[in-house]
Automatic annotation (TrEMBL):
<feature type="transmembrane region" description="Helical">
    <location>
        <begin position="125"/>
        <end position="146"/>
    </location>
</feature>
<feature type="domain" description="Tripartite ATP-independent periplasmic transporters DctQ component">
    <location>
        <begin position="24"/>
        <end position="151"/>
    </location>
</feature>
<feature type="transmembrane region" description="Helical">
    <location>
        <begin position="12"/>
        <end position="33"/>
    </location>
</feature>
<keyword id="KW-0997">Cell inner membrane</keyword>
<keyword id="KW-0472">Membrane</keyword>
<comment type="function">
    <text>Part of the tripartite ATP-independent periplasmic (TRAP) transport system.</text>
</comment>
<dbReference type="GO" id="GO:0022857">
    <property type="term" value="F:transmembrane transporter activity"/>
</dbReference>
<feature type="transmembrane region" description="Helical">
    <location>
        <begin position="45"/>
        <end position="64"/>
    </location>
</feature>
<dbReference type="GO" id="GO:0015740">
    <property type="term" value="P:C4-dicarboxylate transport"/>
</dbReference>
<keyword id="KW-1133">Transmembrane helix</keyword>
<comment type="subunit">
    <text>The complex comprises the extracytoplasmic solute receptor protein and the two transmembrane proteins.</text>
</comment>
<keyword id="KW-0812">Transmembrane</keyword>
<protein>
    <recommendedName>
        <fullName>TRAP transporter small permease protein</fullName>
    </recommendedName>
</protein>
<dbReference type="Pfam" id="PF04290">
    <property type="entry name" value="DctQ"/>
</dbReference>
<dbReference type="InterPro" id="IPR007387">
    <property type="entry name" value="TRAP_DctQ"/>
</dbReference>
<dbReference type="GO" id="GO:0005886">
    <property type="term" value="C:plasma membrane"/>
</dbReference>
<feature type="transmembrane region" description="Helical">
    <location>
        <begin position="85"/>
        <end position="105"/>
    </location>
</feature>
């Protein structure tokens, strides 16, 4: 199960990296097309869709690597049992919020498909396509938070180190 979950997080991160490279290509295409006096319709919209896809698909991998912003000052000031209780409470709330966000993201993508929503730009992209990346990323993030919560309950979660914030730059 651990290998499957890690594969899911790594796969989402690889897809995010691919979308980031595509984002670079879209921005370069936009710049080059302006310099050479021709227009490629939809480049700004597609760059936005790719940026959103990159961000959402990278969330779970970032969480599992311990790279999300955490307020550890308060956490490390608490005694052992209170620290664990606070950690469990925070993970439970984060899991609930991630599950709700995933639910509503999936609902948005589904409704965009059912109502045949299209973008207002020249490209008239069906909006369920870019909404799918948000829905997929938020579902994987909810799974990652649930994974972290289960690991914390079982006592198998790696603790946050006091100097972890110093290594992020």
């Amino acid at each position: 199960m651990r290998r499957l979950l890690n594969g899911l997080y790594d796969g989402a991160a690889a897809l995010a990296a691919l979308f980031m490279v595509c984002l670079l290509g879209m921005v370069l295409l936009s710049i080059i097309s302006r310099q050479l006096q021709f227009h490629v319709p939809g480049t700004d919209a597609y760059a936005g869709y790719l940026m959103a896809a990159t961000g959402f698909l990278a969330l779970a991998h970032t969480l599992k690597r311990g790279e999300h912003i955490r307020v550890t000052l308060l956490l490390h000031a608490l005694p052992g049992r209170m620290q664990r209780a606070f950690e469990l409470w925070a993970l439970a709330i984060a899991t609930l919020l991630a599950l709700l966000f995933a639910l509503y993201s999936c609902k948005l993508a589904w409704q965009s498909h059912v109502f045949a929503d299209i973008s207002t730009g020249n490209d008239a992209t069906p909006l369920w396509i870019p909404h799918m990346s948000m829905a997929l990323g938020s579902v994987i993030l909810a799974i990652a938070f649930l994974d972290e919560l289960v690991l914390e309950v079982m006592g198998k979660r790696a603790p946050a180190h006091r100097d972890a914030a110093l290594h992020s730059e």
